[in-house]
Amino acid sequence: MSENTNEHIDGVTNQTDGTVGTVARCFRAPVKSMQGLWVDSLEFRESAAVGDRAWGLIDDTTGKLMTAKRYGRLLEAGADDTTITLADGRRIEIDSPTASGALSEWLGRAVTLCRAGEVPDTGYEMTFDPPNDDAEYYEIPTPPGTFLDLAAAHLMSSATLAACAEARGDLNWDVRRFRPNLLIDVADGVGPFGEEAWVGRDLHVGTAVLSVQSPTVRCAMPLRAQPAEGAEPDLQRQRGMFAAMNELNGTHPNHLGIYLQVVRPGTVAVGDPIKLED
């Protein structure tokens, strides 16, 4: 395996019907930067998957959206559509009038739990030097009416993650670090990082059509520690992953996965074939 795992990008499938993969897992996070839900299917509307990053914490002092890019502690909490569960087991009902106060107490700063679209357009803060939490932070705007980073959906390939793990086995490449909406198993003929060759084309999956916009630039999130999930162990802090993502993707350093926009709303389920439009 070459150190640069995408030295031979190949997004072409051997399938005659244009199938480039199959949906292996679906994920959404009801509250921005908290642990989310692995689900059987996602319903995509024009702006996002239903219930994905539907809620977020606004810092009352700055007015900015809080994310684990800067506030890694958010990853210690988990959320479903109705309840936030803190690391100590405390449960907070999302629609409770006391939710913001309880979360402010937990974080030690005044915050307001808001639904996406109910607050003026805001931004989140991130650094371009992810291993250094003390580096300068810059504000990045969220897409209007959402708490998303950039695009309606995020897709990753299990083949790409496996190639990264083979090249850098000293690091943990668990998909939970990257929080994609869709994890796919690619078809024969599609190599590691092959999904980047789909930029500018449409994917037909389930009843939805998703347009591939760009490779996904990575932030501090994959470097963060995360708690155990069911039978899955906890994830340790990994500052070295930033350098590894730069090394392994020679075409787009520090990019992993692809961003998608919704061309035709619809439902995507585990097991659905993914077809690349000619």
TrEMBL record:
Protein name per its UniProtKB record: MOSC domain-containing protein
Domain of life, source organism: Bacteria
MOSC domain segment(s): 111-277
Pfam families: MOSC, MOSC_N
One example GO MF annotation: catalytic activity
UniProt source species: Candidatus Neomicrothrix parvicella RN1
InterPro entries: MoCF_Sase_C, MOCOS_middle, Pyrv_Knase-like_insert_dom_sf
